[in-house]
Design brief:
The protein has 20 helices and 41 strands. It has 795 residues and is an alpha+beta fold.
Length: 795
């Protein structure tokens, strides 16, 4: 079934049926104040950290799904009938209640109509602010005057730490209380500490508060729920919380003449009383919300506008121009910290996650990306490895490491990972190539520990050193705690083919920089690594039609032909191509094996068959059901690598087939099967061995956003920056006879038209820049003007 559609013009996804198969969400805010909101106004808010900064509650994995949230209740004072401005939590019959949700870039509209009363609710966090705004407009569409009670409601957490709030009830039920301050409910916890950071407020501007409640249990009532709260049926009675559970409920009684609209502006944040009063007063002035909404749109649309495509495929256009790009920014901002599945226990950035996430925004906002690259470089240990978890309050130069018991106790990460620091190489390469800022290599950045610092070039050299100082018996990088696949433990001295390809790619990148710097001695050293890896891997890792996954510590091969389980793995095949290691014959043969053994209508399985009866001790994925997550599920992040690999081979039809099969937009008309939002990628989709193949899980915060973005932009669209300029070498489906792109590149505007008269998959026949033909596929920066017209002809 279809529950909505893409509105590309307004950069929104419009949900027309509120009874979606799961809560379909959007993100509001910034790293300083974040919020997640569903199409039925469920969700929660937090200051900086979803783990330690929670403001309002949300019940995860609950039978009563997607509650509580940001609720606005309406009661007809004459009939006693009541409903909510979002379909839930009341849930009126859909033959009587109309609902539309418009998720946009940093804002959400939820509109409704019920028995002659229409509401328009706008939710957003103003740019550069640390509180949220709900603007609610109520309109009488009938022919008679109506008397209504309108009530805004939130359930506060008692403690900002999510786990303490939900679990340690013998403590948290006795630390909070609420006050009514004329225009707002103030909640304080640990009041005797006198800490203004432990205050929250829920206020109202633009209307009078006629009644209030600060006690959740009084608001809901005994043996009731948010669908039938006593405070709405009977009106609010001024209850305030002293121990128990806090809430904010503000009721206004209004009369609406036919056609009349009245506006309410609710404000929520973690602010002391004086700041709360100032914030509320600001919104007593007309037009503030319109100005702030426009500012948000200009901010986000400006970033997204740095690459725009117009292809024959509308789903492709919507994902590239809006939703895949926007998801990249959200994942870049929040890592894996707060969603409807990530409940708030990760209090920091995963090293490998974040360094990969950066790649998804480099082409849209390279300087934002550079800031995070510097941050992650400062979380690199002086031995060359990355800190597995980088704390939000990271203190460069003064951190403990996995070598210290204190770090292990605080983060739960007992050792280094083989791949963490190797992700720096493609990320830094993409940044320097996008900007032309080769001087970045000479910036001095602190290491995480010991107070030591080094240039970016030095950081990269030490990352190579870390891999070379941790080799296994064959001379390939050791598996250590894990490589990219957290469920694959090859042993500390086991060896990962995937990481070996990463190391090969890293050496390839660093060799370019070493040559440009005239560092001949280091070039020779890197050439030696090249030669050793080529010999070792071709002799030990090529298995006829595939690359093996690796070796256990005892030398047993994982992922070879003939194995009863897990005989074929995706990542070594795609990374053999991305790294430049595979010969053409190996590349084609291995990717044909992927297509034959791993491809499904919903994407490519991470491996197959699932571990069930033949798992070794380090095959931790056997804990999952067959066809799920790392156990032969369609793990979504590697889809982008497969798309890029096929594109680099020039096989545009297959690259686009993989893009379509894994694209949420292509499941828009089969949303009941997918379950997750059809506008953002999830972590994984159930694979061939699951009875629910095609069902997707774990929304929004996934590295899939960046890998698919890179695979799409660098692979299918063929936009690959280099230090000297921009390579344009598309790899597209044969049915695309023409498409166009607009790209910002180093302060210049590029308008690119790609003609494909012969219906080929790849191969540039001719390219002109501002009417002048250029050789090959590189557009040198030296010939670019401020505005450029580029025509590419394939053939």
């Amino acid at each position: 079934m279809n529950y909505g559609y893409f509105d590309e013009k307004n950069k929104e996804y419009v949900i027309t049926k509120p009874n979606t198969p799961s809560a379909w969400a959007n993100y509001l805010g910034s790293p300083e104040y974040g919020a997640i909101i569903s199409n039925n106004a469920g969700g929660y808010s937090f200051v900086k950290s979803g783990a330690n900064g929670r403001v309002i509650r949300y019940r995860f994995n609950s039978v009563t799904t997607d509650q509580p949230g940001r609720y606005v209740y309406l009661r007809d004072c004459q009939s006693g009938d009541y409903w909510s401005a979002s379909w839930m939590p009341i849930g009126k019959p859909l033959d009587e209640y109309q609902s539309e949700c418009r998720h946009g870039t940093g804002y959400t509209f939820i509109n409704s109509a019920y028995k002659g009363i229409a509401t328009e609710s706008l939710y957003y966090v103003p740019k550069d602010k640390t509180y949220e705004v709900w603007r609610v407009r109520v309109t009488n569409q009938g022919q008679e005057e109506r008397k209504l009670a309108v009530t805004g409601y939130v359930e506060f957490t008692n403690e900002a730490n999510y786990e303490q709030d939900q679990v340690n009830l013998q403590y948290t039920l006795f630390i909070s209380r609420t006050y009514f301050q004329g225009k707002f409910i103030k909640q304080v916890y640990n009041e005797n500490f006198g800490d203004p950071n432990k205050e929250r407020f829920f206020g109202l501007a633009g209307a009078k508060v006629d009644a209030y409640c600060g006690d959740r249990d009084a608001f809901v009532g005994t043996y009731r729920g948010y669908h039938n709260p006593a405070g709405i049926e009977n009106g609010l009675a001024g209850n305030l919380n002293y121990c128990g559970n806090s809430c904010g409920a503000l009721e206004s009684e209004i009369s609406l003449k036919p056609g009349e609209t009245k506006e309410f502006i609710y404000l929520l944040g973690a602010k002391p009383e004086s700041e709360a009063a100032t914030i509320i007063a600001r919104y007593e002035t007309d037009g503030v919300c319109e100005t702030e909404l426009l500012e948000l749109k200009e901010f986000w649309h400006g970033k997204l506008g740095n690459l725009e495509v117009n292809t024959p495929d509308n789903n492709f256009n919507n994902m590239v121009n809006v939703w895949n790009s926007y998801q990249c920014f959200i994942t870049f901002t929040w890592s894996r910290a707060a969603s409807f599945q990530y409940c708030g226990q990760r209090n920091g950035f995963g090293y490998r996650d974040t360094v990969q996430d950066i790649q998804g925004i480099i082409h849209l906002d390279p300087e934002m990306a550079a800031g995070m690259i510097r941050f992650m470089l400062s979380a690199q240990v002086n031995n060359g490895a990355g800190l597995p978890l980088v704390k939000y309050h990271h203190n460069p130069g003064h951190e403990d490491t996995p070598d210290d018991a204190s770090y292990v106790k605080e983060t739960g990460h007992p050792s280094y990972r083989a791949d963490d620091a190797l992700w720096l190489f493609p990320t830094i390469y993409k940044y320097i190539s996008e900007t032309g800022n080769a001087a970045f290599l000479d910036e001095v950045i602190s290491y995480a520990n010991n107070g030591e610092a080094g240039t970016v070039y030095d950081h990269l050299q030490r990352a190579i050193d870390f891999s070379m100082n941790n080799l296994g018996a064959h001379g390939m990088p050791a598996g250590l705690h894990a490589d990219w696949n957290d469920c694959l433990r090859l042993g500390k001295k086991g060896e990962s083919t995937f990481v070996a390809f990463q190391l090969y790619y890293a050496v390839k990148i660093l060799r370019v920089y070493a040559q440009e710097r005239g560092d001949g001695e280091y070039v020779s050293y890197l050439d030696g690594i090249f030669a050793k890896l080529e010999k070792i891997m071709n002799e030990t890792c090529w298995n006829g039609d595939r690359w093996i996954r690796g070796f256990k510590e005892d030398g047993v091969i994982i992922g070879q032909k003939g194995d009863a389980e897990a005989s074929m793995w995706l990542n070594p095949q795609s990374w053999g191509i991305i790294s430049g290691f595979s010969t053409r014959e190996q590349a084609v043969t291995s990717m044909d094996s992927v297509y034959r053994e791993l491809s499904t209508p919903y994407g490519i399985m991470v491996m197959y068959p699932a571990y069930q009866n033949h798992a070794f001790d380090g095959a931790l994925m056997v804990c999952f059901n067959n066809g799920v997550k790392e156990n032969a599920g369609i793990f979504s992040q590697p889809q982008g690598w497969a798309i890029l690999a096929e594109s680099l081979l020039g096989r545009g039809n297959r690259a686009f087939e993989y893009w379509k099969n894994s694209s949420p937009a292509y499941m828009n008309d089969d949303a009941d099967k997918r379950v997750l939002e059809p506008y953002v990628h999830g972590q994984f989709t159930e694979g061939r061995q699951s009875p629910f193949a095609g069902r997707s899980h774990v929304h929004w915060l996934t590295g899939t956003a960046s890998t698919v973005m890179v695979g799409t932009v660098e692979g299918i669209l063929g936009l690959r920056p280099e230090l000297k300029g921009l390579v344009i070498n598309p790899s597209i489906p044969t049915e695309w006879k023409e498409f166009s792109m607009k790209k910002s590149f180093r302060g210049k505007k590029l308008t690119i038209l790609v003609n494909n008269p012969d219906g080929v998959e790849s191969g540039v026949k001719k390219m002109t820049v501002n009417g002048v033909e250029v050789e090959g596929v590189l557009v040198p920066e030296a010939i670019m003007k401020d505005e450029n017209d580029i025509v590419v002809t394939l053939g």
